[in-house]
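ok here's the first one, seq then struct tokens
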Amino acid sequence: MSEPDTRGRRVVVWMYVSAVAVAGLFGYVLGIIVYGDGGGPAGPLVEGSGASYGAIGPITFQLNPLNLAAFGVVSVGFMLGVGLLAIVYVSGRADA
């Protein structure tokens, strides 16, 4: 019996993990640039805005580097994850 070729799946998983990690890194860097390390608006892009909280529907969170990194990881991970699960489901149904 021959084993199924899983190299393509590994590549897709590594691309997924890389995209989620990059989203977290970009969120963290954006948080440092805009909001600084002090937790309040201190970066060069903040002049006049004064916003220190973000909201997604009923969820409110403080805008700081760690929270923006978490937001990037969760949002990109969820969006790509749903797409990948749909592809796995459809490809499994097509093979059957």
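and now the second one, same deal
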Amino acid sequence: MSAIKAKVEDAASSAKAGTEKAMAAAGEKAEKATMRDPMKKRAAEERKEDRKLEIESDERVEKAGHGSEKKHTVEG
């Protein structure tokens, strides 16, 4: 049963990370569209990439915590 719980938590983590990445990308695109300075646009793009990497890292850390729940022993 804990393996199923871990899979569900992994799916939830992936969905949450995907939502956060989409929201971050949309926010950065809106900010970038209103900017006129090319240097600020480049900085916004770098922030977007940094945020994406941070979200992916958080997702991997969260999933790693679920890994211990997947391993179970059969007693009998």
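notes on #2: The mean pLDDT is 79. The chain has two helices and no strands.
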